[in-house]
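B., you asked whether I could sanity-check this one before it goes into the benchmark set. Here's the sequence:
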Amino acid sequence: MTAAALVLGAVLALVVVGFVARPFLREPAPASDDLIQLGEAERAQLELVEERERALGALRELEFDHRTGKITDVDYRAQVGPLRRRAAEALKALEPGAEPERERIARI
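And here's what the prediction gave me:
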């Protein structure tokens, strides 16, 4: 094999690698240049969904800790009520037709 064939093979390999890697090296094109701004209603809805998820996650964690013995029965009973109320209030506010008020969101 001659030196010219080796150089040609190396150049061809670089071209192929460059061609294959090109889509991965480009910045993806955005679907649109518009910035989506949430309205007041969408923002309130998102806050309620986040509060629901936090309350349900805290309930799951509390249940797990109680089952594994990290939390006593007395502490469990003291903590489970307020967490259930938070989750229920968030779920009720998310129901269709419910009008979320700022006071309710701030209280949760």
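One thing to flag: The helical segments are 3-25, 40-67, 73-94, 102-107. Otherwise nothing jumped out at me.
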